[in-house]
Amino acid sequence: MPSPFVFMDLRTTDRDQARSFYGDLFGWTTTESLFTTAEGPWGGLTPLSEGDDRPPQWVPYAPVENLDEALAKAVELGAKATRPRVDLPQGSVAVIEDPTGATLALWEPRHR
């Protein structure tokens, strides 16, 4: 079965250390803010915001057809929206914390 995730984001307090660690461990190539392969970026390196007390973590992105509907359903099922919808050139994302406390990004790609 292929992965149900379309992107991964590493939220960290030290991007330089993360780049060095994952490069040495797996040979991963990085730019300032992305993990990349020959096919293009597959993950992000995002600095934790000042005052964000959550620990560094990997956040998977799950694709959805309709972000607003998926976000509403997640909240209805007991999730907490921790980052509201953000519209980007490539698509839109919102971040939830599931009822167990795990973080997940909901991703609606821009349809071309």
From TrEMBL:
Residue ranges of every copy of the VOC domain listed in the record: 4-109
InterPro entries: Anthracycline_SecMetBiosynth (IPR052164), Glyas_Bleomycin-R_OHBP_Dase (IPR029068), Glyas_Fos-R_dOase_dom (IPR004360), VOC_core (IPR037523)
CDD domains, A to Z: SgaA_N_like
UniProt-listed SUPFAM superfamilies: Glyoxalase/Bleomycin resistance protein/Dihydroxybiphenyl dioxygenase
Domain of life: Bacteria
Entry-linked Gene3D superfamilies: 2,3-Dihydroxybiphenyl 1,2-Dioxygenase, domain 1 (3.10.180.10)
Protein name in UniProt: VOC domain-containing protein
Natural source organism: Actinophytocola oryzae
